[in-house]
Amino acid sequence: MRDAEPEPSARSGALAMIVHAGTYERVHYGLAVAAAAAAMDRCTSLLFAGHAMVALLANFGDLTPGWHALHHGPDGTPANQDRALCDRGIAGMEELLAAMPALGVRLLVCELAVRALDLPHPVSWRTDVAFRPGGLAAFLSSVDRNTATLFI
Questions:
Q1: Which residues have C-beta within 8 Å of that of residue 76, sequence separation ≥ 6?
Q2: Is 85 helix (H, G, I), strand (E, B) or coil?
Q3: At 53, is the pLDDT very low, low, confident or very high (cuts 50, 70, 90)?
């Protein structure tokens, strides 16, 4: 079975996502959607907000990547979920995070979330993923009415 080709306007539109939910599944899927959109040459922006922004921490207390501190659901810890996906040939969290700069995805970290989570100062951010601090105003000012906007 073959999927119908999308309308040209659907192929060319930009994508903006607010990744707020702090579960491994949602952050992983948000990154997968961003990677797919960028690979299709769509201008793609992600605002990490809420607990989701811990995915961009270099570590979370014990030298494991910050995404290990994402909330987990019935499928186990973030590390176990990631390993299960990788075992099935699906890109894991590290691979998706590394792909963001290579694909030209624009990443922002919500300054409100940094304050709300009361992270220790100085915050230990990942250095292998380019992002900039921002907020809702910066994010929304980059979104025009032709941009598809998702909230995860």
A1: 84
A2: helix
A3: very high
Q: Domain limits at 115?
A: 8-151
Beta bridge partners of 108: 47, 132
Interatomic CA distance for residues 126 and 25, integer angstroms: 20
Domain containing residue 94: CATH number: 3.40.1260.10
Q: Specify if 1 maps to a domain.
A: no
Q: What is the pLDDT of residue 2?
A: 46
Q: Among 123, 112, 18, which Cα is nearest to 66's?
A: 123
Residue 138 lies in a domain: yes
Question: Is 3 domain-assigned?
Answer: no
Q: How many domains does the chain have?
A: 1
- Other CB atoms within a 10 A radius of the CB of residue 152 amount to 19
88 CB-near residues (< 8 Å, 6+ apart): none
The pLDDT of residue 61 is 66
Would residue 64 count as lying in a domain?
yes
Question: Hey, what are 111's tokens?
Answer: 């300054």
Q: Looking at residue 5, what is its pLDDT?
A: 43
In whole angstroms, how large is the CA radius of gyration of the chain? 16
4 has a pLDDT exceeding 70? no
